[in-house]
Hints:
The protein is of the alpha/beta class. Helix content is 42%, strand content 19%. A 5-stranded mixed β-sheet has the order 2-1-3-4-5, sandwiched between helices. The radius of gyration is 14 Å and the shape is globular. This is Nucleoside deaminase.
Amino acid sequence: MTKDEELIQRALIIAVRSKKQGNAPFGALLAKEGTVIMEEGNQVHTNSDPTHHAELALIRRFCRETGVTDLGEYTLYSSCEPCAMCAGAIVFAGVRRVVYSASNKQMAEKTGGGIMVPCQDVFKKSPHHPSVKGNVLNREGIKLFD
């Protein structure tokens, strides 16, 4: 198993935990040089906050708790492709790399919802262009939406 697969697998576990708590099944973690620094799950319903997506909440919490606002040395791993809102946060935080499992399109096909703007479209029209690797453990990521 590659390091990306290992960390995506952990993001999928976080997503399952979020689902068990009554939230949508999304999980994310931040890593530096392959070491997990912090993780976060979707807590939209738990916190009554429609913006508490895993990726955005992770960035907010990490920056607040560490005082670090330039994430140029970090990789964000997500159980699903970041939405447009989360992709914007990734740009503003300067995240170096994004790795995800299921794509927005695949999630929408299963759930019938969401804003279907690929994160790479947001990145292309932004001043910061993180590298993106998608479809890691893709089959497992799609199963979250069954």
